[in-house]
Every structure is written in structure tokens, then in C-alpha cells.
Amino acid sequence: MLGHRALTVQDYLNILKRRWWMIAVPAIIFPIVGYLLTFLVQPQYVSQTLVLVEQQKVPESYVKAVVTEDLSGRLASMKEQILSRSRLQPIIERFNLFANGRLSMDDRIDLTRKNIGITPIQSEIARTNGLPGFFISFKANDPRTAQLVCGEIQSLFVSENLSDRAASAAGTTEFLKSQLADAKAKLDEQDARLAKFQQTYMGKLPGAESSNINMLTTLNTQLDAATQALARMEQDKSYAESILSMQQAQQVQQSQSTEHGAVAPQAQQLELQQLQAQLADLKARYTDDYPDVVSAQRKVNELERKMAQAPAAPTVPASSAPKTTDSLNVQQMRAQIRAMELGIAQKKRDQAEVQAQLRTYQDRVASSPAVEEEYKSITRDNQTAQAFYDDLLNKLNQSKMATDLERRQQGEQFRVMDEPNLPESPSSPKRSVFVMGGLFIGLALGLSFVALLEYLDTAIRSERDIWAFTKLPTLGVIGLTGEPEPVVAKRKLFGRSSSDITAGGKPLMNAGG
Amino acid sequence: MSRIYEALQKAESDRKLDRREPEPRTPEASVKSAIYATAVATAEEDQASAPAEARSYGEPYVTPVDPNALDLSRIPVRPWALSLEQLPSLLERGPAVEQFRSLRSRIFELRDISPLKTIMVTSGVPQEGKSFISTNLAMSLARHKNSKVLLIDGDMRRYTLHQLLGCESHPGLADYLGGKTSVTEVMQRSDSFEGMTPGTAAIAQNLTFIAGGNGGDKAADLSGSPRFGELIRLAAPHFDWIIVDSSPVLPVSDAVNLARSCDGVLLVARSGETKFPIAQRAQSELKASNILGFVLNAVHEQPQVGSYYGYDAAKP
Questions:
Q1: Nearest to B296 among A458, A463, A489 (CB)
Q2: Which residue of A has its CA nearest to B294?
Q3: What is the ipTM of this complex?
Q4: What predicted TM-score, i.e. pTM, was given to this entire model?
Q5: How confident is the model over B237-281, as pLDDT tens digits?
Q6: Phi, psi of A331, rounded to the nearest 5 degrees
Q7: B132 in contact with A, Cβ within 8 Å
Q8: B290 touches chain A (CB under 8 A)
Q9: Contact at CB, A479 and B299, closer than 8 angstroms
């Protein structure tokens, strides 16, 4: 009647009463079947081990760990490595896992992978980095194999972690070493460049400025002194020449005293010379307006005019060339002058030299700023390279220390907390689950079967049905047998069985055409 | 004898007048039933004295429709073997008795609304318990205040009522409808039999039965015969109730034909067996008739009834 009209609770109860066995029978049979199935299903044993992760023993502030990646990430990559074919295949072959069927090696590896469980511990106590540890479990058909394989995988993990960390530390050190070598080469190059620069711009370098200035001052002083000395020497020379010329004149007078008129020009000449010397002397000390200078100039001019009027006497060249005719005095004089000339030449050379030096230094001082700029850039590069090198060196030392730490197994490491256990009872199949599942399936099957039957069953069973489908009243309700024995009726707990029996006993009851 | 008959007739008309009165158990009613019982007893005596006369009716009976034409005293008395097991309404008490009693009350209620004497019992398909219901209903009615009840087996194809009553099936309704016999010849009443309790005896005395008779292939034609209506009209004045058991509606049309002459139709549905489409079709087949309602037969779930009677039965 399900689905043909609205049902009340009483209807449902009636349906249940009528068909309870349809629900009860599968609900009893299926759990039993489930329980029996557990004997057919191959048992699975799970062996488990706990691996704790210990932090490094030396404080981080002293030695910085090389591997700082989060453990979960590292665990994941480690798992991939360990679950690789090359690692698993030897284990599978050694323990002869899943060899019962005709499975290919790939299938066996897949199965093994499926049966390996790696679960991190989720600790309530919050840890700053990573996890406190993880479980490794392995599922196998017999407990001993499960234990052995679990231990194998656990040792793989531990060794993998150690070698991984050591390799990581060593790799870091190696890398730093190569970097350091590079940095050293670069630094050397920089140093060479600096040296060459310093060589090239010797004296122009920023630190030489003051010495250059000092040198310049000194040279200036030297130049001054040289100039003064030169002037004095020229003066002396001219004086000596004038004396020489006087002495020659006297000699000429003496030699020409016999000759007429020859004295005058010679005397005039001598006088002129004297006057000229006097004038030069005066001029050296006074200005041209000084009366003595003016008068001396006038005398010189008059004398020169007189001499010009007088017929030019055969002049004796007043050369300094020694003449055999010259007296010893004159010769001495001439030698003296000669020496002076040499001295003047020498001084002039000195002066030129000093001037050249002076120019050099001036040049240096002038070009100093440009050089300084270039120098600075070079030194800056050098400093950078140096700092880089120092930094690398520092890191290398740290890395070496960390590597040593790993080698001594003082860093973070996996500690096996529990050895893999030997499972006592199979983890699967779980009897209770099978029985409960059977019960559930049985109930569901029974209920759906009853629901289907009720839906297909369009039989009229109650007054309500009659009213729902025909809108006619029900005048009477006659019991199945009109059971005359009330005690039996009272005993009817489930109604059905007893009434069936009585109906069977009285086939004509309620029957007829 | 004629005085007694007149008294009976008077009582009948009185009852018709008093039909609206709900309480039948008045001192007056008990007086009437006493008279009734006397009348029946007398009739029985008369009947027993003249069986040969009743059997002499051989030729087809042509009906003058006259109430007096039906002489109840001529009804043959035959040995019946009522079975308590198959007729639970014969018991003194029990669930079935109460169930038929409540069905009877409902029918009484219906009679208050409209005149109701002839009730046909039918159903959609065979094997739903028409005969069981009709027989037991007839007995239940007969038990009540000694009402006179006529039970007709209208199923001329598979007549079974005679098996329930344990009596002869010939001559039957088919013979009457075929014009072979008279009304009184097809009727029969119960002789006293061994193991008959006083209650059963009273019921048996109030019950008149017309067996099915072998209609065979002609059943459909016979059921369409106007003689059936005639029979009802003839019998109606002499009986309080006329219960007609009939064939199922859906396979054959007999019941529909017979229903035209009846005041009301009771449809029987067998709990857990009758499909509602069958019930609906049976209802539509009988659209022209006055369907009183359904009787739900062979119900499993009757939780309260059982315990009530259990208590009742525990009393000494």
C-alpha cells in the first residue's frame, strides 16, 4: 500500500508486523555471512614504528644548521626517494613480497607503496619548527614480514636523513670553497689593478699633494736664489770686463804714446767706458730721474758725440782674446772672466732645471683631482671585493663547523623511539566491521525489499484502504477465522503464525465464492 | 392457523411502523417475539404433518403475485448438518459472533435511512468469502429477535452454500428460475439434528434456504429472468430479511442482474487479497445498484478485539 495513499504510524506498524521476518532474516543472515567472510579474506598485519626527530644539540646561536627546510617538506621528498623503484625493489625481492599471484614487478611495487604508511605526529604542544616525529607502518599478510619490512623502511629513513644532511652540509662547504676561490681571484685582480694605478700616477695620488706643494715652494726659493746669483755673477763679469778694457786701454796708451792723436780717442774711449760703467752702476741703484743718473747720462752722450766727431781712429778690438801682447794682468783678468762666463752658464742651466722641475710639480698638483676620482673608484671596487671575500670566508668557516657537527652526529637527527612491533592480531579484516556491515546491508536489503513489496502490493487491508479507494463505508470487519478460542487470540504476539495455523486447519473458513 | 397468520402479518406491519424506534428490546417486543416463536413452532408442526402434500408440486409454477400465494407451511424440511467450525456465528460468543453482530447493527442503521430487506452479497473476484459472509450474516440476523431470514444461493455456477449448511442442493434457484419448480419447492428448512444446541436450533428454525441449483451455462440467462424479482416480491412479506449470495461481479454478469431486484448490495473484500483496482471495478460494475458498503473479510490485524474477548472468555 506504500505510495498509493498516505500511511499512518499504525499502517507502518502493521506492515512491520506483517513482514518483520523479511527484515529480520537478512539482518541475521548477512552478519553471519560477513563474519564467515572474515575467514576467507586474507588477514593483514600492520607493524608500526615511531621515529622521533631530535633537534641539534649545539645551540643554533653557536652553530647554524645547514639544513633549515621544514621537516614535513623534507619528509615528503625523502618519502619520494625511499618509495622509488630502486629502493623498493631490493626490499621486495629480499622479503618476497606479494609473490603469491602472477603480479608484475610494477604491480608489486605499487602494492608495497600502498601498504607503506607515513604519518606525522600532530603534537598538541606547538613547536617552533617542524614536527616532533612520524610513524612508519607497513601492512603485510604475515606479522613477521610486516615487522621486518617496517624495520627496513625505518632504517632507510634514518640513514637517508643522515646522508642527506651530511651531503647537504658537505655540498654547502664545497660550494662555498669554490665561491671563495673565485672571490680570491677577483680580489687579486683588483689589487693588481690598484698597484698598477699607483705606479702610473706616482706623485699624483691623493696623499702626495702636500709634499708636492712643499717641493714647489722649495723649488721656487731655489729658482730665486739662482736668479740672484746669476745677476751678481753677470755684474761681476761686466765689472771685470770693464777693468780689463781699462787695462787694455792703458796698454794701448802706453804702446801708442808715441803716436799722435791716438791717445785722445783712446782716452775718450776709456772715459766713455768709465762713464758707462758708472751709469750702469747708478742705474742699478737709482731710477732714471735721479740727478746723478741724468748727469752721468749727459756726460756719456757728450762723450759719444765728441768721439763721433773725431776721426775714427784705428780701433783696437777690445777682445778678450788673449794676446801675446797682453800683459800678465790682462791675461789673468781674461781668465777670470772666462771662469765667470762658465759659472754663469752653469747657473743658467741650473735655473732651467729648477724651472722644469717647477713645471712638473705644478702639473702634478693641477692633475690631482682627476686622478683622485679614478683612484677612488678603484679602491672602492677593491674594498667591495675584499668585503665579499671576508664574508665568504666567514661563511665557509661556519659551514665547515656545521659539516663537522653533522659528521659527529650532533645535529638534528632521527631517533628510533619504538622498534617495529610484531603485530599480534590482524588489523584487517575487522570482524566487528564485517558483522556490522552485514547487519547494515541486511537491514537495508530487507527494508528495501519490504518497501518494494509494499509498493507492488495493492491489496486492501483495512477500512482506511476501502475508504481511500472506493469512498464506501466499511460495514463490518470479519477476523480471519472468527477465532472461537479467545485464549489463542490472546496469545497472538505476532499475530501471523498462529492465525496461519488456524487458517490451515480450517480451509473452508472465510472462503467460498 | 389463519388467526395466527393474521397475527404474524399484524406484527410485521407493526414493526414496519416502529422501524424508527431505536430500542427493540421493549417488553412489547419480547411479547411479539414470543408470539412469533409460537407461530414458528406451529408452522413447523403443520409442515411436519404434511410433507407429502408439499412434494406433490411438480408442474411449473406460474406466479400470481399474491402475498398469500406463498404458503410457508409448505416449505419442505430437510436434514441439515450445520457445522460450528464453518459457521462461527452459531456460537454463543466469540469474536466472530461479535463481528457479525456489529455488521448486523450497521445494517439496522442503514435500514433506518431507507427501506432495506433484500441484501445481495457479492465481490469483485471469486474466493473472497461471499458465501461465508452471507451465511453467517443470515444466521446472525436470524438469531436476533427470531427474525425470519431467507438465504438464497444466487451463484448458480458454483453454488456452495449447501455445503456450509450441510444440505441438499437440488432443487435450487436455477430450477425455479428455469420455471421447473415452485417457490416453496426450492425452499427448504432445517430438521433438528444431533448435537444441535438450543441456540442453533432457534437459528435454524428461523432460517429458510434456497440452494443454487445447477444453472450451468444458462446461469447468465437465468439470472436475467424476471422470475427472480417475482421470487423476491413473493417472499418479501414473509421474511424480515432476504440475503442473496451471488457470483463475483467481474468475471460474470449474474450478480449485476440479480442486484436489480435487491434493495442493497454488500461488497466483500478479502483483507490482503483483494486489490484495490478490483474493488474499484466491482464498485463501478454495480453503479446502478445501491451499494451499502464493504465487508472486510479475513483481517489479520485486530489487536484490541482479541484481548477484549480474551478477558471476556476468562470469566466463568
A1: A463
A2: A474
A3: 0.70
A4: 0.53
A5: 999 999 999 999 999 888 999 999 999 999 999 988 899 999 999
A6: -60, -40
A7: yes
A8: no
A9: yes
